[in-house]
Amino acid sequence: MQNLKQHLGALLGSCLSKAAGIANSNANVITASKPEFGDYQANGVMAIAKQLQTNPRELAQKVVELIDSVNDKLIERVEIAGPGFINIHLRNDALMAKASMVLQQPNTLIPQSEQAVCIVVDYSSPNLAKEMHVGHLRGTIIGDCLARVLEKQGHEVIRQNHVGDWGTQFGMLIAYLKEVMKAPDPGSDDLPTRLADLEVFYRAARKRFDSDSEFAETSRLSVVKLQGGEPEYLQIWQRFIDESLRHCQLVYDRLNVTLSNKDLKAESFYNDGLSGIVTALEEKNLLTLSAGALCVFLPEFTGKDGDPLAVIIRKSDGAYLYATTDLAAVRYRCFDLNADRSLYVVDARQSLHFQQVFAVARVAGLASDNISLEHVTYGTMMGKDGKPFQTRSGDTIKLIELLNEACRRAFELVSDKNPDLDEAARQAIADTVGIAAVKYADLSKNRTSDYIFDWSAMLSFEGNTAPYLLYAYARIKSILSKQETALEQYSITSIDAREERDLLLKNLQLPEVIEMVATDCYPNLLCNYLYELAGKFMRFYEACPILKAELESRNSRLSLAALTAETLQQGLDLLGIETLEKM
Ligand code: ARG
Fold it and tell me: Could you report the per-residue pLDDT of 140-152, keeping only the tens digit for each?
């Protein structure tokens, strides 16, 4: 089903095409930039007029006549403005009818995409040798939001958690684990205790590795044995991986992120296919031997000095690289999963890596021509000092600790606001608010820029924050709870006040925003929208009494409030944020 903008775009596009005699002309319909321009405006006439070398206002006049002759049920009137803009005013009854339908069937608020496709979303993808740290927050929640949005539109979404579980570090970890498990102290075989803190364990292993050359050698041999498939090594490795994954799952559950074990496609999964990648590249004559390593050189990638940059496929010792695994993953996603689109939600610092992998995959036929490969980049989370967010001593901060801290701070805030609530209730609210605050602060920033992590800004009740939106939602719910109308009985029957109409139209624009997020992968567009929606509700609430109004307008306004609550709830859910009935 089409959203409002798509409907108008199609209608005005066809009228413009007819008037200009040019097939598929784009009317360029956008939401009106000012209220006096109506609800939407079409900006496409001028460009077409220029192409035809005719007067734009005359062309606009022809378009307007065609629109009028159609008698579209959504359009009240259109008018020409300025050099050839077309302002579009929508009919109140059509808007009210659409809204009432949504109230009766809330799942029609976000219509299904007319062209469902298969989309892979690679996100989170931590390295399992260590604990997840703050650097994993962005990719994990941006990816989760995109997966939710695309799924909601009816696409087949395949989540891929491309965890790192196969590199040389695992040799070191296995060697160390074997050592400590041999130690005679009681409980030493208790892996969960041993690995309670992966970070501590990793550091201890690293210390051994750096200070003891014999241990370092054992570590190197251990990777070879592991990758050669020796059962004993595989078994220890598997136990380590399982334990590490359990830690990740705790973080995902805490964050309300939809990843689970079934979404895992670890690096090791591609191991058996790596020699096949070499063969495929060989067949296309793409490989060059350089200092013993097998490399691909593509003319479009050169270093600062203009020398060609290598994509290393296999090192001289026979080891494969990160890029080799990603080539195997591209092939799997394209030809086994049959994806139409494959998104990689990964740090911007890996941008060259993905450009190279995508380019090699295309020339080598490891990706079909029609799959869309997209690196969805994001910037770094910074501390107030403008450096990547760390502890004072310069250590990385574990993600789980950051979340604990968020909930602790939220608890103080909630206790301040609601000293009378019992402690368990305050804690439950704080757990939701704390996580929501961290997620929303991140998702509401343009993902491509770095941003400064700031506790007091994200926990504020003012501005574009999670507490503000959650509070707006809870407030509407409390108004609605004061009377007993069931959702199906809601119906919007009048939007005479400007604030009512504004709020109603805004509600109906959620699908357009969702469509933009689905196309361009910017969750901050959805955040901005929800913030504006909440603002429009507040203005409506100030200008239009609800409970004190006459029966008919009271019902209509309650319905509008119910619609807004529904939109807020569905929008926040797509961000992975839970709402609260009380705050
Ligand atoms: N494990 C990698 C890292 O920690 C991220 C993997 C991203 N996905 C991919 N297909 N390369 O940097």
Answer: 999 999 999 999 9
The predicted-structure confidence for 443-494, as pLDDT tens digits, reads as follows 999 999 999 999 999 999 999 999 999 999 999 999 999 877 666 688 999 9
421: Cβ contacts below 8 Å, ≥ 6 apart = 414, 429
Nearest residue (CA) to ligand 1, atom 11:
326
Burial label, 62 (beta-carbon count in 10 A; 0-12, 13-18, 19+): middle
For residue 167 and ligand 1, the question of a CB distance below 6 A is answered with no
**Average pLDDT in the 501-528 region?**
98
326 lines ligand 1 (CB under 6 A): yes
Per-residue pLDDT, averaged over 321-349, amounts to 97
CA 421 to ligand 1 center in whole angstroms: 44
Centroid of ligand 1 to alpha carbon of 321 (angstroms): 12
Q: Answer yes or no: is the C-beta of 135 below 6 A from any ligand 1 atom.
A: no
Arithmetic mean of pLDDT over the chain: 94
Residue with the smallest CA separation from ligand 1 atom 8 is 162
- Does residue 346 have its Cβ closer than 6 Å to ligand 1? yes
In angstroms, the CA 139 to CA 147 distance is 12
pLDDT for the residue 184:
61
Helix (H) or strand (E) holding 50: helix 45-52
125 Cβ below 6 A of ligand 1: yes
- pLDDT at position 94: 97
| Alpha carbon distance 441, 410 (integer Å) | 14
State whether the beta carbon of 37 lies less than 6 angstroms from ligand 1. no
- Each residue of 116-135: pLDDT tens digit? 999 999 999 999 999 999 99
For ligand 1, say whether the CB of 243 is within 6 Å of any of its atoms.
no
d(CA 376, CA 346): 6
- C-alpha 216/C-alpha 14 separation (Å) is 70
Q: Is 329 in the pocket of ligand 1 (CB under 6 A)?
A: yes
DSSP string covering 123-149: ----BTTS--BGGGHHHHHHHHHHHHH
Instruction: Calculate ∠ Cα 295-297-301, nearest 5°.
Output: 130
pLDDT (mean) for 380-388:
89
CA 573 from chain centre, in angstroms, equals 12
Residue 477's φ and ψ, nearest 5 degrees, are -60, -35
In this structure, the residue with its CA closest to atom 9 of ligand 1 is 162
